Amino acid sequence: MLRIKKLDIFIARQFLLLFVGTFFICQFVLMMQFLWRYVDDLIGKGLTMDVLAQFFWYMSLMLVPQALPLAILLSSLITFGNLGESSELTAIKAAGISLLQSMRSLIVIVIMIAMVSFYFQNVVAPHSNMAFAQLLLSMRQKSPELEIPEGVFYDGIPGSNLYVQKKNVETGKLYGIMIYRMTNSFEDAAIILADSGMLQSTADKKHLLLNLWSGEWFENMKNSELSGNASVPYRRETFTRKTIVLDFDADFNLADASILANNARGKSLRQIKHDLDSLNHTYDSIGRSYYNSSIVAIGSPVNNKRIETAEMKRAEEMARTKSFNIDTVFSRMSTENKLSSVNNAMMQVQSAISEVGFRAMVTSDGDTIIRMHQMEAINKFTQALSCLIFFFIGAPLGAIIRKGGLGVPVIISVIVFIIYYIFDNTGYRMARGGMWAVWFGKSIAPAILTPLAVFFTYKANNDSVVFNFDAYRELFMRLFGMRIKRNIVRKEVIINDPKYQEDSNSLAAISDEITTYAHEHHLMRLPDPIKVFFKYQPDHAIENIGERLEATIEDLSNTRDKVILTELNNYPIMSLTAHTRPFERKWLNILAAILLPLGIVLYIRMWRFRLRLYRDLRVIKRTNENIIKRIEEMTAQVPQQDNK
User: Fold this and answer.
1) Percent helix, strand, coil in the chain (nearest 5)?
2) How far from chain centre, in Å, is Cα 466?
3) Does the pTM exceed 0.85?
4) Across 476-496, average pLDDT
């Protein structure tokens, strides 16, 4: 039977207190980041406090599933970092309790938080997202004079399309204005050009006043009462100043939510499944219809009006009887028929291109809507799963680093969250554009972070050293052939004095071996590539010399003589095998030689180590002589002191 122990309650209490605080911090940070995206829709609109309160309330509900994983990551890092920093984690492990056993209460809590995240994604967030989108759309429709962008057509004013070349934000004046006003149909469109203008709301907020200066008004009169007069096909007016009254309710009113029917984030799993079936059925029908019409268009003559000529009839008869050269037929036509045929062909091509473009746009939009619904269905599970992933990253890292507070944990949390966000956002964009499969795009971020969570949990549970920066630094220095300095200091307590005479004899023997080795191997010359990569002979002389030298240095480090201690620090730390061959295994050396660029790099690196070994051996030999001389001086001083 599972029993709740005091340790579980202790760790759970610390985690929950930190989780509540970090959750509100993360929620605030995400809301501020989210707010900057829509700050232009809020400023200067005259929105009331209740509208702003609804805006922030729906925003906070939408961001809860995103704040939960980040809060879990940060709070778990701080919790186990505090336990490690205060040595409480060491005491827990000394009592025979593993890291996973100490985490079991938090695992249950995090699973419950993941369920809450899924509930928010499936129940609360869809309603909040739909309400937020409706509220945002309503805000953008309020005070349209502030929303008119530069360089694009703005259709926020009913019955009009407004283009502004430049806008002065401080004065509200518009420059380079072009307006398309629609009345009954496109044939009745009025085109208004003006050098400058200003758009303002009336006092009752029911109309917009458009003041224009130095412009012209073009209007088609085809369907008007004046259309009977053939001499007045359209109206043109030049004005110095003109005021136009536009019907527009500038008060804050909620927009129609029906235009947000394809918003996948505003739907639950059940609604997404239902709508996906409808969308697939609808766009499959559209696709089959387009395909059938294309087949009919290819297999039958185009149903457009053609100019029937004797030459064209003759060409059709020739086509039914035998093959013919189209250039020959075209050359026999009259000039008028040639022009008519070319114009007719161009019209057919342009019509076909427009039709194909329209169909491509419809099918592309349909595919995007379907992919958005599929991504949102997967996102409800991946967001909940990220709570568990972030916990199994944060808790082990806190146990490994053993740093509490808001310093190191915040830095690590930000780095992990940025990595997750980059991969998740990249997968989202690639899946939305159809470059990647939906399941791949939405699962790439969890798939990358899950192995990290498993790795950190395994290392922390086995007390493995992951962030030993000294070990990584030493490995890096050895890899690039960088020097590692020797640091020998005087010991406060010396148990055994050095054996000076034996050490002196050992250093003298090492010096003789160094001289012999340097003479036989010619370290200053280039090594034979055949012997290096293909016919390598074992060379352990430097390894033996290095081991004996280190043993002698270790014994002499117990001395109290300052001169000997200073000379000991002059000994270089030798690389014992890098000058002989690139790798220990013979087949790796052969493979490196076959891969020519790699073999050249390794060969040059080995020659560099041979030159460095030559210099090291000279330094060792000179240092040996200095230490031997000092030992002889110390030995000579001892009998003199005894005679006295």
Assistant:
1) 65, 10, 25
2) 25
3) no
4) 75
87 secondary structure, DSSP code:
T
Look at residue 99 in the predicted model and tell me its pLDDT.
Answer: 87
Number of H helices, E strands in the chain: 19, 6
Tell me the H-state helices in 402-436. Answer: 408-432
Q: How many residues are present in the chain?
A: 644
In terms of C-beta distances under 8 Å and separation of at least 24 residues, what long-range contacts does 250-254 make, across chains too?
Answer: 250/142, 250/143, 250/144, 250/201, 250/205, 250/206, 250/208, 251/142, 251/205, 251/206, 252/47, 252/48, 252/51, 252/138, 252/139, 252/142, 253/138, 253/141, 254/134, 254/135, 254/138
Return the structure tokens found at 574: 């030798």
Query: Per residue, what are the HEC states of 570-606?
Result: CCCCCCCCCCCCCCCCHHHHHHHHHCHHHHHHHHHHH
Residue 468 to residue 591: CA distance in whole angstroms: 33
**Placement of tokens 């990358």 in the chain:** 448
Cα–Cα dist 555/500, whole Å: 9
Q: Tokens for 391? A: 């916990």
Q: Which amino acid is at 456?
A: F
**Phi and psi torsions of 12, nearest 5°:** -65, -40
Read off the amino acid at residue 26.
Answer: C
Distances (CA, A) of 396 to 75, 418, 433: 12, 19, 37
Query: 3-state DSSP call for residue 249?
Result: coil
Written as one letter, the residue type at 469 is: F
Pick from 639, 635, 643: nearest CA to 498: 635
Measured between alpha carbons, how far is 512 from 537 in angstroms, rounded to an integer?
A: 22
Tell me how far apart the alpha carbons of residues 137 and 158 are, in angstroms, rounded to a whole number.
15
- For the residues 467-475, what does the mean pLDDT come to? 62
Residue 70: how many CB atoms within 10 A of its CB? 26
